[in-house]
What does this fold into?
Amino acid sequence: MTDRVPVLNMDEILNCMHCGFCLPTCPTYEQTGLETQSPRGRIALMKAVAEQKLPVDDEFASNMYACLGCRACETACPAGVKYGQLLEDARELVEDVKRGDRRRSFRRDLALKRLFMHPGRMRLAGNLLWAVQASGLQRLANRTGMVRILPKEMAEMQRAVDPVASPGQRKGRQAVIPARRSQPRVPRVGVFTGCVMDVLFHQTNEATARILAHAGCEVVFLEGTACCGALHAHAGEKASAIDLAKQNIEAFEEAGVDFMVNNAGGCGAALKEYAVWLNDHPRWSERAKRFVDATRDVSELLAELPDFEFTKRLDLRVTYQDSCHLAHGQGVRTQPRDLLRRIPGVTYVELPRADSCCGSAGIYNITNFEMSMDILDTKMNHVRGTMADVVVTSNPGCLLQMKQGIIRAGLEGKMRAMHIVDVIAMAL
Amino acid sequence: MEKVLGLTVTDEGVDDCMVDTNSSIRSRLCAIVGEDSVRDSANERHAYSYDATPIVTGAPDWIVFPQTTRQVSEVLRLANEERIPVIPRGSGTNLAGGTVAVAAGIVLNMTRFNRIVEIDESNLTVTVGPGVITADLHRAVEARGLFYPPDPGSMRISTIGGNVAQGAGGMRGLKYGVTKDYVLGLEYVLPTGEILRCGGKNYKDVAGYDLTRLLVGSEGTLAVITELTLKLLPLPESKRTMVVYCKRMVDAARIVERTIAAKIIPATMEFLDQSTMRVVDQFAHLGLPTDVAAMLLIEQDGVEQQVDRDIDRIAQIARKVGATDVQVANTPEDGARLMAARRSALAALSRLRPTTILEDATVPRSELATMVSEIERIAEKYQVQICTFGHAGDGNLHPTCMTDERDAEELERVDAAFAEIFEVALRLGGTITGEHGVGMAKAKFLPKRVGEDGIQLMMRLKQAFDPNGILNPGKIFVRVPDWQHVAE
It folds into this structure.
């Protein structure tokens, strides 16, 4: 164990003064009332492990993985503790120890290594999902209860998934979309398509490009990008995450763009961490910094550009659920709200505790299904109170989770969950 | 096994011969509160080994989450029979080591007593469980146009039970008083299991000793509080904020004194010294002047015309005393912006070094300037970094030391500096703790504050409530009372 301990950053751990200000913002603490399920408690456990007072065992591992990684605690922390990075380090340590033990969770492994590492396989999985949906098998499966063959959590998730784009649709994409409005200097913007977004929400990526072109950018879809690596980093697979980061930096450099836009809060936060991940890689650190400087969430970039015109009116009552990694991770809070308020006809209502996690949290709703659903049900009580027609999100995981929440809360037909880009696109 | 504060302490592990006894105690605890409400895994015991106090730790054997007064009584009866220490705990945000399980035993976590039982609008009282979060209480009563003024710094997560046990203060102490001024009645359980009540909804009640006042600030050493009835006020209709910059700390102190001499009692009068202002400005980029010695943040609330008049008069006083600048906020947003400096003080300071020690030495208002300059002198003498901010209106200072718990030599100098700060505070007619409590952190200074006879009397009171000394041992008193039988 000794040789692995230095992975934990003791200086950062000691920045936590255990004041407890993070406790009321932590969704798992809210559900359980247990110190072990709070950021302060988890940091104390990390410290004990670093000081070799506690072993890296199953209990420690499950406490580290019970965290959503939403980073709401970072916003609340007076001492500015970088909890997200500490958590990644702790999980990496857990995975190192487990690798030694050769005990691994198959499902997690399958998802992370075999799908998210390989865009090709992700596309294949997307194709299969499309085939199931297109052939009517899904309806059959839903009706006959065939979905029950799947593990419960997979089955619930599946009900929330929209029809995915056909392989043909995804192939027939236009590579460069010219600016639709003249500006003194037309920024060239690359769309980071992501892996989950491009398969499950292909139309949203297309809409992102259309909006940016409408707002006066020349838009390209970046060739050769891979998964951002967020899921890997959060799951203690830092080496894989770093490989993906390098691949994406190369793709960015090749495209020669001014900005790199993404529409997934979780991916964006990871993309902006590349400089930290590659800090110790001399040949990469400068390139990573340039990459991070050019990276923007779509709402963030739209707010930096001159205002564009909406052409349609949307008579909708709209609320907004923050993406944790957009709000707490990137500090982007006002931009998406301001965009929604600008749409003609939209009545914007603020969601109470909008910046508290919905329980999706990457693959958390697969790995910690029960807790995820408890958090979601608490969230839906607030969502219901807004009486909104549309609950808007900025991240695919949140979007799926909110769709599922609408089903669980019995609000189907009364409320929809939509990505902010799709809402804006409707008004163009 | 090691000796700490004269108590025999079982550290992380438990002796083999004790395992049988422990597992039988565990099952008896489970029989009282249910399997799910008894926690004792290695991670859980570690996660309840600290509170918000720097450096001090001590892991309990069990963490128990009771939900009813009856369960509290039964747990205490069992603990008393078996001579097991019991440490009542809320959210664990105190700064005096008040909830650290130095002698192991049972952490009695009261957070599930989180019900607001009743808001009584005709008697202006609220009855709550001790686990209710202070800020939740604020929200609930303010929604009805009522006001619970105590606002300790940790109010967003601290529990009312914890506030009462530690005698918490806050920023509104000058005008509205502190937690102890709002407790009207309590339900509590003695370590021997009896369930009692004291006080109630009567503002006037002199029937017998005032046990309510005695239990407030007793730091979980006398009884376990299971319900509280608190006094409420009407919510003030308006509020205004101003900031005053001064060339000398004495000027700031004089503004405070003259304001009060002019028969104006502001809701809040906070100050930041120069070193705190510098750190805050580096952190929050508020554009604070760097050439002044202190800033005062003043808030007044009440009826609008009265508030306007008071703020104008304070501004006049400040200018007359020679303040370098006076800014009055015209909107609530401006007010919030001004208060941001005070609110980010702890945040800014805590980022400087790994360990932040926040103390609460308090002096009579008239000694404020002397105390601040004494703290500066002491910091210089021991070569430690201390910034001071706090509640100018009530003389409650927060000398805050930025250090590193890994540096033993520096920690010794920090200890020596604080010892001298407390000594000076006492010499000026002040006290060693204004709002955090004694706990472990200030136990060794308590005899200097209350005298040897005072300690003796307090110990006899303790014995009357807790004959076997099972409740929160190792707190308040340095010496173990000779009748104490726990953990031997």
